[in-house]
Automatic annotation (TrEMBL), chain A:
SUPFAM superfamilies linked: Cupredoxins, Cytochrome c
Membership in a protein family: Belongs to the cytochrome c oxidase subunit 2 family.
Gene: coxB
Domain Cytochrome c: 233-324
Name of the protein this chain belongs to: cytochrome-c oxidase
Keywords of this entry: Copper, Electron transport, Heme, Iron, Membrane, Metal-binding, Respiratory chain, Translocase, Transmembrane, Transmembrane helix, Transport
UniProtKB/TrEMBL annotation, chain B:
GO molecular function annotations of the record: cytochrome-c oxidase activity; heme binding; metal ion binding
UniProt cross-references to PANTHER family, sorted A to Z: CYTOCHROME BO(3) UBIQUINOL OXIDASE SUBUNIT 1, CYTOCHROME C OXIDASE SUBUNIT 1
SUPFAM superfamilies membership: Cytochrome c oxidase subunit I-like
TM spans (from-to): 50-72, 92-117, 129-148, 175-199, 211-240, 260-284, 296-318, 333-355, 367-388, 400-426, 438-460, 480-501, 613-629
Source taxonomy: Bacteria, Pseudomonadati, Pseudomonadota, Alphaproteobacteria, Hyphomicrobiales
Protein name: Cytochrome c oxidase subunit 1
Domain of life of the native organism: Bacteria
Length: 324, 637
């Protein structure tokens, strides 16, 4: 297996505790507070338990005495009152924290995120229809801006979760959910489907790449372009194979005759860091491996094995790798 | 009270002790051999059978867990493919919830409740027999399907549309849904039996405030079963109709709703947790008395906490749906209600601590498991408070944090008390004591293995590892903890193996148990170990909450029951004053035949809707045979 290199941030890049998103930062504070209070509660209970078991006792009779019973009633009542106070505080804190999540303004960048077995379809919606474009599995966002995600499950239920940026939200067929994310620092943030969605639930990752506004604009402008024409003979042969074999029935490469919509849009597949929903780094080799045997690499996924001759496989992988 | 004309010498007051017991034994006996085994309606035999079967399912579910840990020990391991793995985790969840946890609690109650309330058999004993056969058939259906590579693979919660006609291919989801029907039937049957037994068959004098706490917990649990099961029945029927007939209950394209399934499922699924936990809490409250050598502190508080938990259990199902996109205000309400359940849990916990504080603890294996329960269940309860918070939950929902949480609740909160209960009531069930040495060893292995296995899962969840993944990629930082967890699971497995060895060995060679080895205060210890087929030669009369402590050696008894036919005393609901003598049914083969007919109909209906029409004919025949008057003495009343 090829490993996807970590870029942009060191250490853990899919963690609730290693956060760079505004929502995730406030969630982290809440989580740490609640965990700390609960740890103290647990320790107090343990102290009480140990004391109860180990304390030296006089040989009093087993029948309860009214004085001791009263004292214990007081202690138990006190503990119950403390419990009520703690959970009331938690409830109010949760309520306040919930209200601060999901605050999106009118002019925010909006991305339609579609969950499919087992990849993410992305549609950037600009103020003008001409700014619209499609891509897959890799979300680019500008740093420091709210980005509104419109979440739709197209087949079964999925859940969008990039823990370093925000809490998760389900993609439910027949409904449209929203989630606002905002990265405070440039970086690559990994996310993964969090609702069991069938055979390849484990391999349904995505990347969120937060970059400065100008880098983002440059990327978006490039994505809006149609595919680069084949740069050499081999790539041209690859395009030809792509169009004559079943590939084009499922995939779109804008600017060519390939206009299928079942699989991810491949117009700029070469520019994306990973293929197969975060399984491999995008290289010509990984593309070739994936096309040659998708069912062994990701059993049960919807990409069929298309028999290709060795030179066809070489050509098609060269072509796809060139789609920057 | 009716007084049929009977020969005077058949009343228990009119004959001397040895003839009394031999006549009762003849009247209540289960004939030896195969036929007797198939026809018995003795709650003790059925209860023991039920407990044994449930533990077999526990062991099978444990094997599945071990397989999962084997696969997850390495990133991108290829030991188990995604298709099999998804079947395995679905089977593990469905098996543990539907075939182990709920049935085992009800099974213990089937055995103990009639003894603890001082009666001779459970109410509706034939229904009890039927319930067991249906349960075994449901379990066999699920496991045979799994062996044939047809096991359900949609999770124990079977969310639509993944389990619906479009994405759940084959018969796998149907097998899951129909297994639910089997376990529903058996659980509902027992719930009804227990409610009636507890309400109407308590020994004279056992007023509401003298009911042992385990019996109280089973009463509340039974009502939970009766109220929660219809929701899953509606849900699974809708799913079967969608799959078999093409209805559109859950199909958004045709006006159905995907979230309807989740509401119905969790309206059942959350109370289900308390259906498992409350009996365990009752076991702790009951066992803590002999081992703290004092009455449980705060009887009224403990009973009220059980009832409050039962009521609140129905008001917090939405916390399973916090990230499904429901209105935020509603979510906040369910945060409050989910947090509130900590109050009755806290009351019970503080009462147990007070009991231990004031008592003089006897450190035997059952108490060790109670201590282990307190240590781990408090963690599970506190992480429960965490996931009750909507914002907290958006980060940990469907991650290993939740896997850790509910294993702390279910293993720490229910299995530990259950293991303690096995050590505690083993002498009553078998007439032999379990080995204390092996008991201690298994306790320490289990508690260390359990915490080492499940505590790191909290961290994995916070590090972003989702649940229900068959593998993970090598560049994610989860490998180390996963290896540690898989190794710790070996220790946990060793602990359970030792427990099973202890059970099997002690059943054969254990020290012979006296009637009341723990000096316990409740009625089941007033009879022999194991009890005779008729439970009590004379029905005890109860004068306090702890009859065997307060009236040592002088337990009063009621008399006047016939000995030549199966008879027991019916008492009033609140005051337990004797009301009538009631006949109790004899052994019968019809419950088994009815269960076979029901099984054929239910399994056939996975494949054809016409099964409901034609399959109901044999069921009707079996039920007519079941209720047909046989001319036995019991028919007279």
């Amino acid at each position: 297996m090829l490993a996807v290199p970590l870029t942009g941030c060191g250490g853990n890049w899919q963690s609730v505790l290693d956060v760079e998103g505004s929502a995730a930062i406030s969630l982290k504070h809440l989580i740490i507070l609640i965990v700390a209070v609960c740890s103290v509660v647990w320790m107090l209970v343990m102290v009480a338990l140990i004391a109860a078991l180990w304390r030296t006792r006089d040989a009093h009779p087993t029948t309860p005495e009214p004085v001791r019973e009263r004292r214990m009633t007081l202690a138990v009542t006190g503990a119950v009152v403390a419990t009520i106070l703690i959970i009331s505080t938690f409830t109010v804190l949760s309520f306040i924290a919930t209200r601060t999540l999901n605050v999106a303004g009118q002019d925010d960048l909006t991305i339609r995120v579609r969950g499919l077995q087992w990849w993410w379809g992305l549609e950037y919606i600009g103020p003008h229809p001409s700014q619209r474009f499609e891509t897959a599995n890799e979300i680019h966002i500008p740093v420091g801006r709210n980005v509104r995600l419109k979440l739709e499950g197209l087949d079964v239920i999925h859940s969008f979760w990039v823990p370093s940026l925000a809490g998760k939200q389900d993609l439910v067929p027949g409904r449209s959910n929203e989630l606002t994310i905002r990265a405070e620092r440039a970086g690559v943030y990994r996310g993964q489907c969090a609702e069991f969605c069938g055979m390849q639930h484990a391999h349904m990752a995505l990347l969120v790449i937060a970059e400065p506004q100008e880098d983002f604009e440059r990327w978006a402008a490039a994505q809006r372009q149609t595919a680069t024409p084949p740069i050499d003979e081999e790539a041209a042969a690859g395009l030809q194979t792509f169009l004559t074999k079943p590939c084009a029935a499922c995939h779109t490469v804008r600017g060519t005759a390939a206009a299928g919509t079942t699989g991810p849009d491949l117009t700029h597949v070469g520019s994306r860091r990973t293929i197969a929903s975060g399984m491999f780094e995008t290289t010509r080799g990984s593309l070739a491996a994936w096309i040659a045997d998708p069912q062994t690499i990701k059993p049960g996924n919807n990409m069929p094995l298309v028999p290709l001759k060795p030179d066809e496989l070489r050509a098609i992988s060269a072509y796809l790798a060139s789609l920057k | 009270m009716t007084r049929p004309a009977t020969a005077p010498d058949t009343r228990d007051i009119d004959i001397e002790r040895t003839r009394l017991t031999s006549t009762l034994a003849e009247t209540w006996k289960t004939p030896p051999g195969f036929w007797g085994a198939l026809t018995t309606v003795d709650h003790k035999i059925i209860g023991r059978r039920y407990i044994f079967t449930a533990f077999v399912f526990l062991a099978l579910g444990g094997v599945l867990a071990a397989l999962m840990r084997l696969q997850l020990a390495q990133p991108e391991a290829r030991l188990i493919g995604p298709d099999r793995y998804n079947q395995i985790f679905t089977m593990h969840g469905a098996n543990m919830m539907f075939l182990f946890a709920v049935p085992v609690m009800e099974a213990v109650a089937v055995y103990l409740v009639p003894l603890m309330v001082g009666t001779r058999n459970i109410a509706f004993p034939r229904l009890n027999a039927f319930s067991y056969w249906i349960y075994v058939a449901g379990g066999a259906l699920l496991w045979i399907a799994f062996a044939l590579d047809m096991g359900p693979d949609v999770g124990w919660f079977a969310y639509v549309p993944l389990s619906g006609p479009q994405y759940g291919a084959g018969k796998r989801a149907d097998i899951w849904a129909q297994m639910i029907t089997f376990t529903e039937l058996s659980a509902l049957a027992i719930a009804v039996e227990l409610v009636v037994t507890i309400f109407k068959q308590r020994a004279p004098g056992m007023t509401l405030d003298r009911i042992p706490l385990f019996v109280w917990s089973m009463l509340v649990t039974s009502f939970l079963v009766i109220m929660a099961m219809p929701a899953i029945m509606i849900a699974s029927t809708g799913l079967i109709l969608d799959r078999l007939f093409g209805t559109h209950f859950y199909n958004p394209a045709e006006g159905g709703d995907v979230l309807l399934w989740q509401h119905l499922f969790w309206f059942f699924g959350h109370p289900e947790v308390y259906i498992i936990f409350l009996p365990a809490a009752g076991m702790v409250s009951t066992m803590i008395e002999p081992f703290a050598r004092r009455p449980a502190f705060g009887y009224l508080g403990l009973v009220m906490a059980l009832i409050a938990t039962g009521i609140l259990a129905f008001g917090l199902w939405v916390h399973h749906m916090f990230v499904a996109g429901l209105p935020r205000l509603g979510d906040s309400f369910f945060t409050a209600s989910s947090m509130a359940i900590a109050i009755p849990a806290g009351i019970q916990m503080f009462c147990w601590l007070a009991t231990l504080w004031d008592g003089r603890p006897v450190f035997k294996t059952p108490l060790l498991f109670i201590i282990g329960f307190i240590v781990t269940f408090v963690i599970g309860g506190l992480t429960g408070v965490m996931v009750a918070s909507v914002p907290f939950d958006t980060q940990v929902h469907d991650t290993y944090f939740v896997v850790a949480h509910f294993h702390y609740v279910l293993i720490g909160g229910a299995v530990f008390p259950l293991l303690g209960a096995v050590h505690y009531w083993f002498p009553k069930l078998t007439g032999r004591m379990m080995s204390e040495t092996l008991g201690r060893w298994s306790f320490w292995l289990i508690i260390v293995g359990f915490n080492a296995t499940f505590f790191p899962m909290h961290i994995l969840g916070l590090e972003g590892m989702p649940r229900r993944v068959y593998t993970y990629q090598p560049d994610l930082p989860w490998h180390g903890l996963n290896v540690f967890i898989s190794l710790s699971a070996v220790v946990l497995t060793a602990g359970f193996l030792l427990f099973f060895i202890n059970v099997l060995k002690s059943a054969r060679f254990g020290e012979v148990a006296p009637d009341n080895p723990w000096d316990a205060p409740t009625l089941e210890w007033a009879t022999t170990s194991p009890p005779p087929s008729y439970n009590f030669a004379m029905i005890p009369v109860v004068g306090s909450l702890h009859p065997l402590w307060d009236e040592r050696d002088t337990l009063p008894v009621a008399d006047g029951l016939r000995t030549d036919r199966r008879e027991l005393i019916v008492t009033t609901l609140a005051a337990a004053e004797p009301q009538a003598r009631e006949a109790s049914p004899r052994n019968s083969i019809w419950p088994l035949l009815a269960a076979v007919a029901t099984t054929i109909m239910l399994i056939w209906s996975i494949f054809s809707p016409w099964a409901v029409v034609w399959g109901s004919i044999p069921i009707a025949v079996a039920l007519i045979g079941w209720f047909w008057p046989k001319g036995t003495p019991e028919d007279e009343s």
